[in-house]
Predict the 3D structure of the following.
Amino acid sequence: MSEFGNYKLLIRETHIDSYGHVNNATYLSLYEEARWEAITPRGFGFNDIHRLQQGPVILEVNIKFLKEIKLRENITIVSSIMDYEGKIGHMKQQMIKDDGTVASEAVFTFGLFDLKARKMILPTPEWRKACGLE
């Protein structure tokens, strides 16, 4: 497994639902935020995607909610590539509390999408670099 991102954040009021913990849909938004923060400085940000006409797509996700995350807790989202064979890769992301507890874990099936041809393509050298594979 190849780790390519650690994103620290504070859980804010907008992340919380009426039960006092992070809303289930918010987990996906936070995971996405962490992915953008990992690939953007590696040359695959929003503007780069539109310039290259290639961008990442999520094909499937399996998410586990293991421990509550409450208001004003600090978490770190760790992103790792599990494998990438052909056009399809698998990435694991975990939300880890300050005490080391894994609060959530998600496995994403993803790939690189050609915006002009409207189809999945093999990972380019630029995309492999963005994913921490080169």
Remarks:
- Helices lie at 24-39, 46-52, 125-130.
- The radius of gyration is 15 Å.
- The beta strands are 2-10, 54-65, 74-85, 88-97, 102-114, 119-121.
